[in-house]
Amino acid sequence: MPGQHPIYDHIERDARVRAPQRSPSTAGEVIPPPTIPRPAAQSAQPNQTAASDRPIAAGPGFLKRALRRLMPNTKAQPTPARPTPVRNDRSMQKLAAAAHRLWLRRAVAGRPTARAGQANPGAPGQLVDALTATPGEPKLPDEVFPRLHWGGLFLYLGDNEKSVRNLAEAYDGKRGFTVEQPVTVIHANTLGMRLPGVTPKGFAFLARKTQLIQPGDFTERFTYHVELTPCPAGPFAPDGYVVTKRVPTYHDLLQRLRHKFPETDLNDLRKRAHKLVDHVFPTFLTREAAMLGILQNNLDPAFRDKVPKPLGIEKDQRGFVRTLHMKWMRIGGEPISQLDFALQAAELLAALHDQARVMHLDLRMDNMVITPVGVGFVDFGSACRIGEQVSRSPMLGELFGEMMRTSQIQRMLGKMIERGHVTNNAIADVYGKVDKTVDAFYLAVQIAKPHVNPDLRQYIAYDSESDTAKALSALTAAVLRPKNPEMAQYKSATDLVRGLRRIERRVTR
Ligand SMILES: Nc1ncnc2c1ncn2[C@@H]1O[C@H](COP(=O)(O)OP(=O)(O)O)[C@@H](O)[C@H]1O
Ligand SMILES: [Mg+2]
Fold first, then answer.
1. Of the ligands numbered here, which is closest to the C-alpha atom of 287?
2. Candidate from 227, 379, 452 with most ligand 1 atoms within 8 A of CB, to mutate
3. Ligand nearest to the CA of 223
4. What would the pLDDT profile of 83-125 be if each residue is shown by its tens digit?
5. Residue 43 counted as domain residue
6. What's the domain range around 218?
7. Contacts of 238 (CB under 8 A, 6+ apart)
8. Does residue 53 belong to any structural domain of this protein?
9. Are residues 357 and 504 in the same domain?
């Protein structure tokens, strides 16, 4: 691809040696950036484009939807300034139900929801896709944030216009949320009629959790600044959002480094932050954009929806990608069994290695999603092509060298070898190396304890005492500590698939 950053050439050149080309190669190319509007400056102005004012799409349920809209059940209206009397609980619930019908029913159909005053359904720690609150229930952004999935919605309904507006203000582009529907008047009609002064009236707004962590918080789980960005709904953005991954700002990164290394000299941290923001992160994000293009071009169609589809990039003057927009692989769908999780993940990994000739190298549970089409992988920021000689570029050689010394997976592998928990020679040999066996090793570890990522807990049925869980733990043990470490049965993703199929046959017999 002429005119692209040399990093693309590097990935392509080395990979070309061995990678089978499946389709006319535009590998490394990403689809030109769509115009993704910046999040609109949200204001608590009356909502002019409430759901009820939009055209009703034709298709199944058209008549029902059209009738529902004609019935004056719920209607969003510009907010009048008139004060409203305090409501009793019953009418409050009625109003909340009306607001729910207006904004949430379709948006979260089939997804877990809860009242803010009650615990989330399911096991402790399980997250929901929508939370509804009325006065008296927990309603502050910091109380709501930890209970919602990324992209989850918070609906608040109150009777005091001023306090609802104040609360909406606290969510407006702050504390990890974006206000999606500004403060709007909600009526709960009785017998299909609205009687002035009698029909209960409330004020509601809807906010979406668009950040992964709250401003000022620190985590080891993520590195880049990743958020949901609103955009026109379409085939690549069914929910009206795309995922935007950016190089973090110097300021944010320095804060993080100071938090992580409180003892280190500030000037050292400043130098490190500059290097990361100016060179290291843009390099890896540029590579990631290229890898996503390669995956779309080389994976069989069945696997293409299981990795992020690149939708656009923004580069700096040097040609480095600083912002990458991708399709949001939204967590959801029917829960799957632990065995299905393991099988789908291993099959996807085998496709990654054998079809796209790409190794992931950071296959932590945080970089996996479960969507209605099954298990998916995200975060190809550390990925490398099989056959790519990173050491041929001094800069890449140094960066990958450092990554292989410091990544969570490599550190864990080192410790496990030291303690005798990994004796499989094929795995021990790749410690500190850029090699696809690292992926197989880490997947074998993950499938035995799939509940590490809180976002996925309710989507993987896992019972540590079940026969399947025991069989999977035995498989993990066989991968890590085979009877004959020199002639191990399991070395690759395909070997794992084979072992898992065997368990499947046994369990379903
Ligand atoms: N395309 C995507 N679809 C769904 N979730 C995503 C997508 N990209 C990233 N994520 C979520 O955002 C998190 C951080 O993104 P990731 O690419 O892993 O960045 P980092 O390199 O900082 O770890 C992921 O762990 C995942 O939860
Ligand atoms: Mg990640």
1. 1
2. 379
3. 1
4. 444 456 888 888 999 999 999 999 998 899 999 999 998 878 8
5. no
6. 1-36+211-328
7. none
8. no
9. yes
